[in-house]
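Convert to structure. Protein one:
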Amino acid sequence: MAVAVFLSAQAKPRSSAAESWWWVAAIGTAWSSGLFYMINRGYGRTLLTSHGMKFHTFVSRRSIAWSEVTGIETKSHATRSGKWWEVRVERVSRRSLAIPGIFTSRRYDPLFERNLTIVREYWSRAQQ
């Protein structure tokens, strides 16, 4: 899509070089947004307590009580460059949330499975 924009801009007379490079800024913004998202997810941490979960990332802090949780599920994402898996919290009458700090790009990652098991154990203890 960027190539089409660039080629169509070439056909028109240019008044300045800055006007023809606007698409570079748009692509750079999209790329840096994606990079920030991945760093934020990797840096984020989750504190499990007997009352609920506390999410900590670069830009947000959030608490979820165990009484709001209806399920702990894994979700896979597939792109052209590969696959990755994350753990999501299903909540009562609200959208699901990704748990920060628990994701992997390997199919059978023992650390990912261990962290998933720990979160499910805390949730099952809270339901008793």
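Protein two, convert as well:
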Amino acid sequence: MKLKYSESHPLKSYVLNEQFLTKTEFIDKYENFQWLDLLKLQLSANENQIHCSPSLNIEDDNGNGVFVSIVGELNEYEFYICYKRPITRKKKKWFGLVEYDYYDKNFCSVIPEQTKQDGLNAFMLFYEKNYEELEEKWG
């Protein structure tokens, strides 16, 4: 199975290297991605030049996906894992008196304080379509 892969670089306003990758091809890209070099570039740039944090992204045909970004300082950084998928959640209105189901087709959970290995694990669960464990860990 191949998923849509792309990269986000700090000084680019568009995604790069869009292509379809197998799980094995993706692991190679992930392990060789220049996380710290791009973070260093971001930290040395002027604020108005920065468009995003260095990130890798994979998506399926429905637009659901996992995105991993590196943030922080060179000597103290962390990874964010974002998991985008549709969910139904409870919402309230009328001062909490009325509760109803709300379908959010583009819900994205953002989980900070993750490691590089956590990011790879999230991607692997997505490739394996293990959405239950992905939801449990990063939902």
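The chain has a mean pLDDT of 94. The two ends are 23 Å apart (CA to CA).
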